[in-house]
UniProtKB/TrEMBL annotation:
Quaternary context: Interacts transiently with the RNA polymerase catalytic core formed by RpoA, RpoB, RpoC and RpoZ (2 alpha, 1 beta, 1 beta' and 1 omega subunit) to form the RNA polymerase holoenzyme that can initiate transcription.
Domain named RNA polymerase sigma-70 region: residues: 30-98
Entry's Gene Ontology molecular function annotations: DNA binding; sigma factor activity
Organism: Jiangella alba
Record protein name field: RNA polymerase sigma-70 factor, ECF subfamily
Gene Ontology BP annotations: DNA-templated transcription initiation
Residue ranges of domain RNA polymerase sigma factor 70 region 4 type in the record: 143-194
Pfam families named among the record's database cross-references: Sigma70_r2 (PF04542), Sigma70_r4_2 (PF08281)
Family the UniProt entry places it in: Belongs to the sigma-70 factor family. ECF subfamily.
The entry's keywords: Sigma factor, Transcription, Transcription regulation
Amino acid sequence: MTERSCDDRTVAEALMTRARAGDQDAFAQLVDPFRRELQLHCYRLLGRLPDAEDAVQETLLAAWRGLPEFEGRASVRGWLYRIATRRCLNAIRDAGRRPPLAPVPPFDAPEPTRHQEVPWLQPYPDALLPEAAYLRHEQVELAFVAALQQLPPRQTAALVLCDVLGFPLAEAAELLDTSATAVKGTLQRARSTLRTTAHRPPAAGGAAERDLTERFTRAFVADDVAAVIALLTDDAWLAMPPAPHQYDGTAAIAGFLRASADWRAGRRYTQRPARANGQPAFGLYLDGAPAGLVVLTLDADRVAGVTRFMDDTLYPWFGLPRAFG
């Protein structure tokens, strides 16, 4: 153990002693370094930002109340993850994955290619991502979080704990109140059924990402359907949670965009840039009112996915105004 790790452990033990004596400031110093990563963990499991925030608040309250029972055999981080994971699994069980009320298109939309399997999915603001060297793009990408939502809850938890956060099997088993053998089997099933597509986005914030995003946004806002389609991959998708319909492939996407543009009868969008799940995004406005938060999934020099979240309550999370124009 290094001298620095010894010092860190000594400080943590001193804070824990004070916290157990009822010092709320000491408790805050003890848990605050883990707040952002706990929120991201809960978001991966639940797929919704408000639900993740609620789970974190419940976790910290349970930790404060459970201080007398904390024996120190696990790290504070591991202890908090155990509480948070339990809270998330309970929330999933209680909610029963009831989809939110789907908005009705104000125009006669073309028949969708398929229906969304996770209409409750929401984006995650980059501003809330933890500043950690281990955080990889593919572990926060919207498509990855959507794929996690399609696994059984305990499979999701095992995969996130082991493959994303790097907990050893034995420690993950303790967090999940089961055996290492059981976690290994659950993890194998999760890995075999997880459906994700490997995307190769340009460097976040780099010139290539900015150029592609600006060209797409300009075409989208101007209803230049041909220019939008030219920037898409052949197997691109357009999804609009919580609406269940999804359009796969350039022909289906073009049909929907043309129908939408015809309905607006020449009224054009305005937009404000944002970032979500490590990906470029923008808030849409029609006649100054929110018209969807759009998150782009990039693959090399093309756009592989367009996810338009039809939920104006998301705007404040991304620093976007309620009205703009």
